What we know:
Elements: E1 2-8, H1 12-25, E2 31-38, H2 44-51, E3 56-60, H3 65-76, E4 81-85, E5 89-91, H4 97-105, E6 109-118, E7 133-136, E8 141-143, E9 146-147, E10 150-151, E11 162-163, E12 171-175, H5 176-181, H6 194-204, E13 208-219, H7 230-247, H8 253-273, H9 277-292, H10 294-303, E14 316-317, H11 321-326
Parallel strand pairs: 1-2, 1-4, 2-3, 6-13, 7-14
Antiparallel strand pairs: 4-12, 5-13, 6-12, 7-8, 9-10, 11-13
Amino acid sequence: MIAVVILNWNGASLLRRYLPQVIATTPADIADVWVADNGSTDESLAVLRDEFPQVKVLPFAQNYGFAAGYNRALQQLDYEYVVLLNSDVAPAEGWLRPQLELMQNDTTIAACAPIIMDDKRHEYFEYAGAAGGFVDFLGYPFCRGRIFDTIETNCNQYNTDIDALWVSGAALMVRRNIYNEIGGLDESFFAHMEEIDLCWRMRNAGWRVVACSKGKIYHLGGATLSAANPRKTYLNFRNNLAMLIKNYNSCAWFCIFVARLLLDGVAGAKFLASGEAAHCWAIVRAHWSLFGRLKSVLKQRKALKKQRSRSLPDQIYKRSIVVDYYVRKKQKFSDLSF
C-alpha cells in the first residue's frame, strides 16, 4: 500500500479546494490518503473531521515546516511507498499507478514523480518540477520544460521516463525505508530546495531518481510563499548554497562555492537596480545565515563523503545554464547538449 501524505498548515481553503480531487483520483485499493497537520490554528482539523472523514489525520502540536513535518510523518507511518503531495495539487485521473509500477518493476529507483503541470494554465508545465529536474555545474536548477522563467507548453515533447537528478516535491513518491535511511529531508532547510537536496543525496548513494511521464498532476504553486515574498528568496539562496557544499562530489567544490557567492552578488545588484531592495537584503541575510552555520554544513558534507562517487552524475549539466540561457539563447531543454 501507498500513503499519499499531504502536509497542511492553516490550509483549510486549500483542503476544501483540492482534497476532493485527490480522493477521487487516488485508488483506494492501492493507497490511503493522509493529512499531516503542522499545528494549524485555523479550521483545518474541523474541516477534515466534518467534511473528509475518509481521510486519515496525523496531527502535530506545532509547525515543523515542510522538511521536518514530512520527516515526522514518514517516521510514524508504516508503508512501503509514500507520496509527498502538496496541499495545492489536483491530480489527473490515473496519476498514481504508473509510479507504483515503475517502483515495483525496478528496485534501484528510490524516488519518482509525475509530470507537473500549472494549475493556473493547464497547457503549461509548472515552474517547480515540470518533467524532471537537473542542475548545472554551478548548482542552478532547471527542468525539462522550464529553464529560469521560460516555461514551455506541454506538447508531449517530454513523454518518456528519464533519470533525473531531482524531481518535484509537489508529488514525490519515495521508498520509505530509503528515505529514512538517508536521513529524509534536511530539516535545517525548513522549506525550498529540500527535495533537490534529498534526490541528490539519493543519486550520490547509488539510487535512481526517475521522472515518470505517464502520470500527471496540476500544481498551483506559491500557496505558502509566493515568488514575490523575500522570505522565499532568502530560503532559495541559502539552501542552494548549503546543498552545493553537502553534495558536490568534486574536489573543485570550493571554487564552485566561491563562484556562486559572486554570482549571488550579481543577482543582488540586479534586484537593487530594479527597485527590489527587500530581495537584495534577503540574499545578504541568506549568506550571513549560511556562514553562521557553515561548520554544521561542512560536518554534513564530511558525513556524506562515503556516499559520493568521484565523478559528477550524468544529470549534472557540465556547462553553465546561465550562459546558455542568457548569452546563447538556449531557452528550452531540447536546446541543451548534455
